[in-house]
Amino acid sequence: MLKHLHVQVLIGLAAGILVGHFAPVFGVQMKPLGDTFIRLIKMLITLVVFCTVSVGIARMESLKQAGRVGFKTLL
C-alpha cells in the first residue's frame, strides 16, 4: 500500500499537519527545506514544458502544423 504515490502524498500531508499543530517551532525551522523543494518543482515544471513543446514541434510534418501549435501555445 505504501508503494502508491497518492498514499505517500496523504501520509506526508498528515505528517505536515501534525508537525504544524504539535511542534510549530520545528515546522518553522523546516521552512528552508520546503522553500527549496518548491524551487526544485518550479525548475522541473519549466523543463518538462520546454521539452514537451520542443518534441511536439520536432515531430510536426509540416510548417503549417507548427504554426498552429505555436499560435495555440501563445494564446
UniProtKB/TrEMBL annotation:
It comes from the Bacteria. One of its GO terms (molecular function) is malate:proton symporter activity. Keywords: Membrane, Transmembrane, Transmembrane helix, Transport. It is a multi-pass membrane protein. Pfam families: SDF. It is found in: Membrane. This is Aerobic C4-dicarboxylate transport protein.
